[in-house]
Design goal:
The complex is a heterodimer of chains A (about 170) and B (about 425). Chain A is an alpha/beta fold. Chain A has nine helices and four strands. Chain B is α/β, with parallel strands linked by helices. In chain B, the strands form three sheets. In chain B, strands 1-2-3-4-5-6-8-10-12-14-15-17-19-20-21 form a 15-stranded parallel sheet. The chains are: A alpha/beta (about 170), B alpha/beta (about 425). Chain B: It comes from Daucus carota subsp. sativus.
Chain lengths: ~170, ~425
């Protein structure tokens, strides 16, 4: 079942109206995993280097298929790109990012993978900074707990690390 | 986390620079451990090894530095020895692009000739692009080869000798940014760096240093502590700040300052020739900050000669922001020119003025200048009058203050008092 999402003026009802209004160009992005469609301004969509290249090379037809990214992740990504295209005030953006990235590690990883795949550097850097900030100043055990990582080091490796890094435990 | 591709794990890990975080990251999981060699930057804060027992900082740093493939940035604020430094640079010297070290040599006595000095060891960082050194003792020329890729050199808190510095600068022919702050021991500093763009110098001592800068690409120059300045090539110079807190400024010999947008002159005493010369050259400035307390060519501290208001502003037509203090403000006056003034006289671009008044003497003249600024500054948006530390044991001080308040009241949209 196709779902049509308009990321733009919520009062507009039909695609015809969007095409006729203003000089802005619009693109439709379709996540191929779950067939969700998003209508986005071109200026927002080209924050993704991948989409930008497609548009510049003239390969972007009316609907751009986006594999590997699920619908709800795409929605969030578009929200991020839209904010970063519209807003130039550093402070406002910083506050927005803090709120936006207030997610658990799994959601953050999903965003990282998608941002990397779509080549949206600003988003990738923001998410990575967030993940890094979550673990700075924390011990190995704490890092594993926060980011939900399994300790798969062998007993030897653990012992070796312990020896090399014993200075970290001296307080 | 398991689904995360290796490249992204490495990317997360690369955001860890603090050595302690890196050490902990190393013990998180296999993939994290495997990402360690790809780190690009390591930072050792001042007190990271404060409670160390067993290994030495040199060793620990060496072990961490050695486990990385290509280290690009190394920052060490904790204490270390030249032996340690030599060992790290033997591994990563040619890869390092940014190096920042707290040398802590200032307490050292005569350099021991047995082991090479920390400065000498730096030779191994042959491809470094940015070098920042804190607490440097450079009284002998360092045994450096050429740092051809070095663009940024910063030395903060140093004891230098003229020939040593000259030798060091010769080894960095491609510098674009040079910063020597809190440096003592220098008397004569000739700088001939063909690509220098920004130069920031702060020399401690008696303020009697002599400086010459010959760099045709120079855009920004800030100097504190020199009495003689010679800067012939100035066609790119946009920002200039000359200050001398401890000595007299005798001579400023500059080329044309046609590109200069911002000028700041500060100090206790400048020879009149120097003041008038630099103000005359800076005819295109948009921003002017003037805080020199006295003039005079010899020991005697003299007040400034009267400077005609109309003439001053006619010579600085592009002035947008003007900040003037005490004695220099007191010297501005109308002479008689405003009576016969050209009705077209105007201070066209002036938007913001800050005036600091130190004494209530010559109140009438000062009020008149303030009023003229408002009258002829058609675009004036903001005037701040600072009445700090005014010598107020004279009753005229109160009268003066009242005058200023009235003036403010009449122009309340523009004026504020501090």
């Amino acid at each position: 079942m196709k779902k049509l999402k308009f990321i733009g003026n919520p009062l507009l009802q039909s695609r015809e109206k969007i095409n006729m209004s203003s000089d802005k160009k619009w693109l439709t992005l379709k996540t191929t995993e779950d067939n969700e469609e998003f209508v986005v301004e071109e200026s927002v969509a080209i924050m993704s280097n991948v989409i930008k290249n497609m548009v510049e090379d003239g390969c972007a037809s009316s609907v751009i298929p986006v594999p590997r990214v699920k619908g709800n992740a795409m929605g969030k990504i578009i929200e991020f790109c839209k904010k970063h295209t519209e807003e130039s005030d550093e402070k406002v953006l910083k506050e927005f990012d803090a709120e936006f990235l207030n997610l658990g590690p799994d959601a953050l990883y999903d965003l990282m993978v998608s941002a990397n795949f779509l080549e949206i550097k600003v988003l990738l850097d923001s998410v990575t900074t967030k993940v890094a900030d979550m673990i700075k100043g924390k011990s190995s055990e704490e890092i594993r707990n926060i980011l939900k990582i399994e300790n798969d080091l062998s007993a030897e490796e653990i012992e070796e690390s312990r020896r090399e890094n014993c200075w970290t435990r001296q307080e | 986390m398991d689904d995360l591709p290796e490249a992204l794990v490495q990317y997360i890990v690369s955001y860890m620079n603090n050595a302690k975080d890196v050490a902990f990251s190393n013990c998180v999981s296999k993939r994290w451990k495997d990402s360690m060699p790809y780190l690009k930057s390591l930072y050792f804060p001042r007190n990271i090894f404060d409670n160390l027992t067993g290994d030495t900082p040199d060793c620990i740093i060496r072990q961490m530095v050695s486990s990385i493939c290509r280290l690009e940035t190394l920052v060490v604020y904790c204490p270390f020895t030249s032996v340690g430094l030599a060992s790290w640079l033997s591994v990563q010297g040619s890869f390092l692009r940014n190096l920042e070290l707290r040398m802590d040599n200032l307490g050292d006595h005569q350099a021991c000739t047995k082991s090479p000095s920390k400065l000498d060891c730096l030779r191994a960082a042959s491809n470094v692009e940015s070098l920042r050194l804190w607490g440097v003792l450079m009284i002998h020329p360092p045994n450096w080869d050429y740092f051809l890729k070095l663009r940024n050199l910063e030395i903060v808190g140093a004891k230098l000798e003229d020939p040593a510095l000259a030798h060091a600068l010769k080894a960095c022919p491609n510098l674009t940014h040079l910063s020597l702050l809190g440096c003592e021991g220098l008397r004569s500093v000739p700088i001939e760096l063909p690509q220098l763009q920004q130069c920031k110098l702060d020399f401690c001592g008696l303020g009697d240093c002599s400086l010459s800068v010959t760099s045709p690409t120079l855009e920004s120059l800030q100097v504190q502590g020199c009495g003689w300045l010679q800067v012939p090539e100035t066609k790119c110079l946009r920002t200039l700040s000359i200050a001398n807190n401890s000595g007299r400024v005798y001579m400023v010999d500059f080329g044309k300052l046609s590109a200069l947008e911002s000028l700041s002159i500060r100090g206790v005493q400048w020879c009149w020739d120097a003041v008038s010369k630099i103000l005359k050259l800076a005819s295109e400035v948009k921003y002017l900050y003037m805080k020199v307390e006295f003039t005079g060519d010899f020991e005697a501290l003299l007040p400034f000669p009267e400077t005609d208001f109309v003439e001053f502003f006619s010579n600085h037509q592009k002035l947008q922001k003007f900040d003037i203090h005490g004695a220099m403000f007191a010297a501005l006056c109308q002479k008689n020119s405003l009576r016969h003034i050209d009705s077209s006289f105007v201070i066209p671009c002036l938007e913001e003025v800050t005036v600091t008044i130190r004494s209530p003497l010559n109140a009438e003249q000062k009020m008149s200048t303030l009023e003229s600024l408002v009258k002829y500054g058609k675009n004036l948006k903001k005037m701040t009058i600072k009445i700090l530390q005014m010598k107020s044991n004279h009753s005229s001080a109160d009268d003066f203050f009242e005058e200023i308040c009235r003036f403010r009241y009449m122009n309340h949209k523009i004026i504020s008092i501090e």
